[in-house]
Amino acid sequence: MKVTAGWTLNCIDCETVFEQDPPGYFCSNCGGLLEAVKKEYTVSRNELFAKSGEGVWRFRVLLPIVQEVSPVSLLEGGTPLVRTRNIGKETSSGNLYVKNEGQNPTASFKDRGMTVAVTRAVQSGARVLVCASTGNTSASMSAYAARAGKAAAIILPSGKVASGKMVQAVVYGAKIVRTEGTFDDALEILLQSISGLPEFAIMNSVNPYRLEGQKTLAFEVYEQLGFMVPDYLVLPVGNAGNISAIWKGFKELRLCGITDKVPRMVGVQAEGAAPIAKAFWRGSDAITPVQNPQTVASAIRIGNPASSKKALAALRESQGMVLTVSDEQIIAARKLLASREGLFVEPASATPIAALTEIGAKLERDSLIVCVATGNGLKDQESIHVDIDSTPVASDGKKLVELFRELTYGQIRA
Ligand code: F0G
Asked: Whole-angstrom Cα distance, residue 115 to residue 113?
């Protein structure tokens, strides 16, 4: 199908320019990843921010979907940017914000991209929406497929997806297939077999329309900070679509002349699944895949990220960096964010806070930092142990008051 007027899909490797969506959304010349490019970035600040309260679709002037097309939407985007108030000491940051993407319709940032990719897939006549996933992509895709009246089929790595995410896919009505391998195996099988079959539309972040939706986070952050660009934008990196998308959003603000500054992009990976971190610090443009990635943060348990090339470019162009954190640091950071700020995120989404507890002190004083909390904590409860039977029993009111006093003694802050 023809790319929306004023836009093309360009190969990031051989630079072929497509006026039609190629089969499977990969470059039909060299197999490279595509990027949606607007022919003219002439949108003014007023035009971009004129509308309020419509989430992702309020930024349609910078989305490659024509006005006449009715979006498949669940009112995604428009998530809160929460200023932290109690963890300044631990993170050595007094000017730290959390963009709470867990408040999206299916409780992760994936909804921003899915609304655009599914709208496009419906427009181009796809019958079945498909993806491989560590959980959130499949939950989100299943919801948007349901909304669009399309079938959803997903491939998941067996035993490696948080149960809350699987429950979502089941309830939304997706058909589930598993592989005994890793997420990387699942994505590879999917891309090799499905690419180019016209009844299937691939909804992983190799689909450039996904990244178009996800880039809107940059526009929102800029607006929510009172039309300011943060010094650092910190986020977890798995398959590497989101860092590429958000960087594209900030670059487009600059291309339009709306801003002259861009943030430094700081990616965070888990120690046991850090191919991009390794390539970055080696100074290489290509990753060496990690064969058997391991981390408690199952969302980013990825050894061969599909968008690593885009991500490495984002990191270099923005003069950013990519850090690694241990599972212990991830769990501690999730607890810190929940117990001190009231923000409950899934393990992957705690990696930026974990990284700041390590390097916050090395950043310039009073840096304006935005961490992206990519997914809601309720999705992934496997790593939290709650034993209700081991809690004390209140036999009557007197005992209750006694227990409450005893248990909270020392916890009361002025
Ligand atoms: N945070 C969460 C909660 C995620 O689910 C993911 C990716 C990421 C961060 C990393 O984003 O892949 O764009 O670098 N989850 C994918 C999935 C892989 O299948 O749900 P990325």
From this structure: 6
